[in-house]
Structures are given as C-alpha cells and as structure tokens.
TrEMBL record:
HAMAP family: NADHX_dehydratase, NADHX_epimerase. It catalyses: (6R)-NADPHX = (6S)-NADPHX; (6S)-NADPHX + ADP = AMP + phosphate + NADPH + H(+); (6R)-NADHX = (6S)-NADHX; (6S)-NADHX + ADP = AMP + phosphate + NADH + H(+). Coiled coil: none annotated. Catalyzes the dehydration of the S-form of NAD(P)HX at the expense of ADP, which is converted to AMP. Together with NAD(P)HX epimerase, which catalyzes the epimerization of the S- and R-forms, the enzyme allows the repair of both epimers of NAD(P)HX, a damaged form of NAD(P)H that is a result of enzymatic or heat-dependent hydration. Catalyzes the epimerization of the S- and R-forms of NAD(P)HX, a damaged form of NAD(P)H that is a result of enzymatic or heat-dependent hydration. This is a prerequisite for the S-specific NAD(P)H-hydrate dehydratase to allow the repair of both epimers of NAD(P)HX. It comes from Streptomyces omiyaensis. This is Bifunctional NAD(P)H-hydrate repair enzyme. Gene3D superfamilies: 3.40.1190.20, YjeF N-terminal domain (3.40.50.10260). The keyword ATP-binding applies. AMP binds at K391, G392, S393, T394, T395, G422. Binds 1 potassium ion per subunit. Keywords: ATP-binding, Isomerase, Lyase, Metal-binding, Multifunctional enzyme, NAD, NADP, Nucleotide-binding, Potassium. K(+) binds at N61, D119, S155. The gene is nnrD. Residues 10-209 form the YjeF N-terminal domain.
C-alpha cells in the first residue's frame, strides 16, 4: 500500500525527528537522495559536463535544491542557480558556491542550454499558484529541452488537496521526501508531478499508522479478491442483483451485467425492463420479471445505470434501498436517493457518482468538484453516511463519515472516458460486494481492476470500448494474481 500524509502530519513528524538530529541533517539527507535521483535521470556517466539549472525559492525547498546542486557540481556538473523570491537558504547557497556552482541574473540564457532543471521554488510551504515573478521563468523551464525535476512537490500545486489555483510548473519527475503528499496522488496536481520517487529520510517511525490517503498496489488487491474454494457453490460465492437499463438506455443494463459477471460473484440476477436483451447478450444471467419481493435472494444490489427518470424507477429504487444487503447506487439511481434514506438503511451503501453527478448531489457545479476532488468525496461520504467512489481522472474512494483515509486509484487511463465504462465498473464493484468485500475494498478493488483492464484493452494506446474493458477484466484479474 502506498500512503500519503497531509502537510501538518509531515511537519510534526519532521519536527520530532529533527530534534534528535544535528542541525541541517534532515535537509542533507533529502538533498543526497535528490542528487542521486538526478544522477539516475541524467544517465550513467552523463553527470560530468551536464548543465543543471536550479530554480530556488525563498524557503527550505530552495535549500534542498541548492544542496543537491552542490553535490552535482562536485560530480562535475555545471550548476547555475536562479534565485526567485528575494532571499535564498544561506547555508545551501554557500555550499553551492563552495562546490563551484554559480548564481545567474539571466535565467533564460541558462535555461536555454540546460539538461536538467531542479524546481525548488516551493514545496510544502507553498500557498496558491506560482507568484507572478516566477511564472515566466517556470514557463521557460518547461519550454526548454531539459528534464524538469520537482523538489518534493511541483511548485504551485496544493500539497494537501491536489488543487492547482493558478499556474504551476509541470515536472517530468518529482522526488519527494519522507512521505508522499496527498496532492502527488490526486488530480489535477498529480498531472504536474510526472514519475514519483520517494526518498527515505527516516520519517517512517514518526508518521501515524493511519494515513490521509492510500493507494492499493497489486499485492493488496490480490489479497482482497475473492477466490472460490473446493466447498464453493454459486450461492456461497454470492449473488449480485442488477437493476439497470430502460427502453431508452438498454445498453447500460448489458454493460452493468457484463461487469457483474466478471467480478467474482457466483451468479447475476437481473431485474429491469430489458431482460430479453440482457439474456441474449449474457445467457448465464438469471432474469427476474415478477414482483420485487419474489426476486430471490441476492447478497448485494447494483442499482441505477440507465434506469431513467419517472415513477417506475423511483418505486424500484425504494425496493432496492429497503433491502437489508449492501447496495451500490450509480448514475440515474443517484437521482432517487436522499441523505436521509441512505442514512436510514440497515446495510451499507456505496454511491458511485462521476463529477457531474457528485456536483448535483452536493449542490455545486462540476468544475468545483473536479478542482477539489478530495474535499468533494469526503463531503459526500459525510453527508450520506455512505461509502463514495468518485469517478474521473483520479478515482477516489472514501468510507462513510468522510474522515478516514481516502483510497486513490493508481491504475486507469484517460481512454476510460468512454460511454458505458462506468456501467461496467458499477457491475464489477457490486459483484465484489456480493462476494463479501466491504464497500471500501469492493469499490477500490473494482476501480483498480477496471483501470488495469482498460490499460490492457488500450494496449500501447488507442480507443477502447466499454465492452472491451469488460472483456479484459479476467486477464487483469490474472495479472494481479500472478504478477
Ligand atoms: N522541514 C524539514 O525538516 C525538511 C524540509 N524539507 C524541505 O522543505 C520544504 C518546506 O520548506 P518551507 O517550509 O521553507 O517552505 P517552502 O520552501 O515550500 O516555501 C515557503 C517559501 O516560499 C514562499 N512562497 C509561498 N508560496 C509561494 C508561491 N505561490 N510562489 C512563490 N513563492 C511562494 C514563501 O514566501 C516562503 O518563503 C519541503 O517541501 C522540503 O522540500 C526537506 O529539506 C526535508 C526536511
Ligand atoms: N480523464 C479520465 N482519466 C481516467 N479515467 C477516467 C477519465 N474520465 C473518466 N474516467 C473513468 O471512466 C469511467 C466513466 O464512467 P461514467 O462517467 O459513469 O461514464 P458512463 O456513464 O458513460 O458509463 C469511470 O470509471 C471514470 O473513472
Ligand atoms: K518544488
């Protein structure tokens, strides 16, 4: 599991550790790791004679860049510092000068010839986007041929929220110290960070056991995925009920069922208006056409994809929400839930909105949700007392109440932004719920598998369909089990 901690927590841990170490020791550790990462980015034997430019802000982030620059200068790099923000870390600057580095007044000339740029303008102390005087320099750095390495964080992004309020410097790689910061894992800031590398500065023992954010990795998902045993039968593996589709949106039912069939439950039971079409596409589905209370046992429901509006779906959603089993509500189904009705439920609820649906539930607009995804997922989980999976460029999952760690999905690809892929995800997550995973695990494992399947379907990069994602799910599942 990859974890991220908020700035306040990182600062507290740093303070505890720093009290035990000689002055400046922590910054030297950080700089040593940063310089080593730069050497590997430049390539073997390419440090000597390379041209490195340091963008140095007024705080300790600039200090890290200066100390790392000094190390690179000692290895034969030509290192030039551009001082932004009036003052610079005194000891760091002295170290750079002692190692043969220089300070320039002409950033543009230096940047035009640079092989590597270290962005040390701001780190966890940055507030808001880049200040106006840093903007043209940052743009010149990004426009140059150099590899841009962010020190701790890309300057201009918010470390805790992942928000980018103004301009920020996009990096090819970010070398972060002690712990990942939430903004490195959540869009839009994540987009600015490039490849991530974590330098261990000894902070581990001083960080709390419960992080602000966590991202599952292959082995975590492998441990959570259900696997049938010798004594399994289809009912013990779980039956997932799918209520989806309408005369207008028939495909949503087929796609939700396609996801559900590949999520580990033993059987899929379908209720809705398009049973004929569903059974034609998936003969293994149990289609129920009678009254709700005669539907037969299910261990979890997926409700909402393509059900449309009106009194029929509203009544049906009432039946679903009254069931004493976990319920996943997606898409049109989300229009038929109120915080009160969800809070009153006797079993867990999982809501899976995209940004537009989340905005409607929160009474805000889509842009606000996209700019502040972490705050949005926490607010929804708190308001509804439910687990929430917020879809989009970084899919986030938050447990009921909104205060625990938020799971960030590390798989996925923008090719997933294709009609119907969300229906496949809801079927898949519901199937994992029916198989017995708790809602946070079901949602985050589903997002993980769904993203991997999409990457597989896209191959080296290319358009995919929602059906193609569903078809790639078994292979993604195998990749996780046998890496
Ligand atoms: N605290 C520690 O023990 C360690 C800190 N380290 C480094 O120290 C950094 C934090 O240092 P600081 O607390 O000094 O803060 P930063 O260096 O991140 O930034 C604060 C400075 O930037 C200026 N600033 C704020 N917002 C700005 C903006 N939008 N545009 C331009 N300038 C802006 C402020 O006026 C302030 O002087 C970390 O990110 C990390 O790089 C590392 O050396 C590891 C050890
Ligand atoms: N830019 C993006 N990057 C990665 N994944 C995305 C992006 N945009 C959308 N997705 C994913 O694609 C799926 C789309 O779901 P949804 O919006 O419900 O579409 P639909 O209703 O057509 O099925 C979700 O899994 C979402 O996380
Ligand atoms: K930085």
């Amino acid at each position: 599991m990859r974890t991220a901690h908020p700035v306040e927590t990182v600062r507290a841990a740093e303070a505890e550790l720093m009290a035990l170490l000689p002055d400046g020791a922590l910054m030297r550790r950080a700089a040593a790791g940063l310089a080593a990462a730069c050497c590997s980015l430049l390539g073997k034997g390419r440090v000597y004679g390379s041209r490195v430019v340091l963008l140095v802000g007024s705080g300790d982030n600039g200090g890290d860049a200066l100390y790392a620059g000094a190390r690179l200068a000692r290895r034969g790099a030509g290192v030039t510092a551009v001082l932004l923000g009036g003052r610079a870390h005194g000891a760091g600057l002295a170290a750079l000068r002692a190692a043969g580095g220089r300070v320039t007044e002409d950033p543009y000339e230096a940047l035009a010839a640079a092989d590597l740029v270290l962005d040390g303008i701001t780190g966890i102390g940055g507030r808001g986007g880049l200040r106006p005087e840093a903007v043209p320099v940052a743009r010149a750095a990004r426009g140059s041929d150099a590899v841009v390495v962010a020190v701790d964080l890309p300057s201009g992004v918010d470390a805790d929220t992942g928000e980018v309020d103004g301009e920020a410097l996009r990096a090819d790689a970010t070398v972060t110290f002690g712990a990942y910061k939430p903004g490195l894992l959540v869009d839009p800031a994540r987009e600015y960070a490039g490849a991530l590398r974590l330098v261990d500065i000894g902070l581990g023992p001083y960080l709390p056991a419960i992080p602000g954010l966590e991202a599952l990795q292959h082995q975590d998902v492998a441990r959570l995925l259900p696997e049938p045993g010798a004594e399994s039968d289809k009912y013990r593996r779980g039956v997932v009920g799918v209520y989806a589709g309408s005369d207008r949106y028939r495909g949503a039912a087929v796609l939700a069922v396609a996801g559900a069939l590949r999520g580990g439950a033993g059987a899929v039971r379908y209720l809705g208006r398009v049973g004929d079409m569903v059974v034609r596409a998936h003969p293994e589905v149990l289609v129920h056409t009678g009254p709700w209370d005669a539907a037969g046992r299910v261990q979890a429901w997926v409700a909402g994809p393509g059900i449309g509006e009106g009194s029929d779906p509203e009544t049906a959603m009432g039946h679903v929400l009254a069931a004493d089993v976990p319920v996943l509500v997606d898409a049109d189904g989300l229009r038929h839930v109120t915080p009160g009705a969800v809070r009153e439920r006797s079993a867990p609820t999982l809501l899976t909105p995209h940004a537009g649906e989340a905005a409607a539930l929160l009474g805000t607009d889509r842009a606000a949700v996209e700019a502040g995804r972490l705050a949005a997922v926490r607010a929804l989980a708190a308001r509804y007392g439910a687990t929430v999976l917020l879809k989009g460029s970084t899919t986030l999952v938050c447990g009921p109440g909104g205060t625990g760690p938020v799971r960030v999905n590390p798989t996925g690809t923008p090719w997933l932004a294709t009609a119907g892929s969300g229906d496949v995800l809801s079927g898949l997550a519901g199937s994992l719920l029916a198989a017995g995973l708790d809602p946070v695990d079901a949602a985050s494992c589903a997002a993980y598998l769904h993203g991997l399947a999409a990457r597989r379907a896209a191959g080296a990069g290319g358009p995919i369909t929602a059906s193609g994602v569903a078809d790639a799910l078994p292979a993604a599942w195998r990749d996780i089990r046998e890496p």
